[in-house]
Design a protein that fits this description.
single chain; 429 residues; alpha/beta; UDP-n-acetylglucosamine1-carboxyvinyl-transferase, Chain; five-stranded mixed beta sheet; 13 helices; 29% strand; binds shikimate-3-phosphate
């Protein structure tokens, strides 16, 4: 049987890549970015920045962005196409809103079904003019304004994208912006701001709540950025090595940001043999190597309070749960309905089709798994155009001698164009 062996360097992180490009565009001069993830989503942000007058060039593997400073975007002559990328749409809406320009944002079918009012309500309160389709969706039009009102925002829903968008808008505003997060989310934006020496205050209000205070406008001095490896991409191979007998792999250059590697703690609790070793800090992010070997997994309960830190890993955690002894319950997954697909549906439909007992009730999913290898017949997997569903089931298919046929693998390039190449490198018989 095929197993996973050896070591690879994981591609650049998607969230950090978007932010590296945007913050470079807001800097006052030339920024070199290394290890940028060249995925479809990130290229959407890059092309939109070009539309906004930012010069961006690639030489060999390095990208150079010639920043125009905060407030430096020019009127685009075309609509801004975000494709499938939620991060592009939210972050760029925030970034353009405090510039005196008018922008129309569009996206593909999936993105056009995702809520934009979750961000526009904040930008509108500040004074931006926003017209949404059916009050919530793309295409949308923003009338930006350099005189938006700096103010306090209270975020009830956990979203790193919304938080980051408000921060990006605030960088160009004269006065104090305060953002209170009722539930903490990923902190790549704050880390990159510290690395770029952007002065802001972050206060811990309680175990799960934080405030961020900015006092703009800011001048951001150019500083080169190296993008750390993507832990969410690494998660596919980590689970692959845990569930495929005789596997042992080392994944290098992974961002070890606590707000991103909660899935490793979950897998360790399930009995996963995983060793994490920090090697360095690059551009504000801790980075290191992760060693994984085949393990007999046991079911656990995953609490709702962890959901903002596991948000992109539930699909691959569901695959781990299917190979763990007992019933794994993952709670509080309402946000999964608002991702690239309704991931509660994508996970439950496909696992049920293979023959697993899966129940989704309210916002929880329970999966009855087994750590003894089952025999299955050929089954077609429906990705719903969702890259993380495609990669999760591609990993499960390795266990079943490729009997799971993924209906559309092209969506993998949204976040991990080198997935197949890296998988091939790790696979041995
Ligand atoms: C992201 C935040 C997360 C995540 C997405 C990327 C980001 O979304 O699902 O893939 O880069 O800020 P939320 O806005 O729901 O936190």
């Amino acid at each position: 049987m095929l197993k996973l062996k050896g070591s690879i360097k994981i591609s650049g992180d998607k969230s950090i890549s978007h932010r590296a490009l945007i913050f470079a565009s807001l800097s006052t001069g030339r920024v070199k970015i290394s290890n940028l993830l060249e995925s479809d989503d990130v290229m959407r942000t890059l092309n939109i920045l070009k539309e906004l007058g930012i010069k961006i060039v690639k030489k060999k593997t390095q990208w150079t962005v010639y920043g125009n400073g905060t407030g430096g975007y020019i009127q685009p002559s075309q609509v801004l196409d975000c494709g499938n990328s939620g991060t592009t749409s939210r972050l760029m809406m925030g970034a353009v809103s405090s510039n005196p320009i008018n922008c129309t944002f569009i996206g593909d079918n999936s993105l056009s079904k995702r809520s934009m009012s979750r961000l526009s309500i904040f930008l509108e309160k500040m004074g931006a003019g926003i017209k949404l389709t059916k009050k919530d969706f793309l295409p949308l039009h923003i009338d930006g304004d350099i005189n938006l009102i700096p103010m306090e925002h209270v975020m009830q829903k956990a979203s790193a994208q919304v938080k980051s968008a408000i921060i990006l808008a605030a960088l160009n505003l004269k006065g104090k912006t305060r953002i209170i997060e009722k539930r903490n989310t990923r902190d790549h934006t704050e880390r990159l701001m510290r690395y770029l020496k952007i002065n802001f205050k972050k206060k811990i209000l309680s175990k799960s709540s934080t405030s961020i205070e900015l006092n703009g406008p800011y001048e951001i001095k150019p500083r080169d950025i190296i993008v750390a490896g993507d832990p969410s991409s690494a998660a596919f191979f980590i689970v692959g090595a845990l569930i495929i007998p005789k596997s042992m792999i080392t994944l290098k250059n992974i961002a070890l940001n606590k707000s991103r590697i909660a899935f490793i703690d979950v897998l360790k609790k399930m009995g996963g043999k995983i060793k994490v070793k920090k090697t360095k800090t690059i551009s504000g992010e801790d980075v290191g190597n992760v060693q994984v070997s085949y393990s007999l997994l046991n079911a656990i309960e995953v609490k709702a309070s962890s959901s903002p830190y596991l948000i992109d890993e539930y699909p691959i955690l569901s695959i781990a749960a299917s190979q763990a002894k007992g019933v794994t319950v993952m709670k509080g997954l309402s946000e999964l309905r608002h991702k690239e697909s309704d991931r509660i549906k994508s996970i439950t439909t496909n696992l049920s089709k293979i023959g697993f007992k899966v129940i989704s009730k309210n916002d929880d999913i329970s999966i009855k798994g087994s750590n003894e290898l089952q025999v299955i017949n050929r089954k077609k997997i429906k990705t719903y155009g969702d890259h993380r569903i495609a990669m999760s089931f591609a990993i499960l298919s390795l266990l079943y001698k490729n009997k799971l046929i993924i209906d559309d693998e092209s969506c993998i390039s949204i976040s991990y164009p080198d997935f197949k190449k890296h998988l091939k490198k790790l696979s041995t018989n």
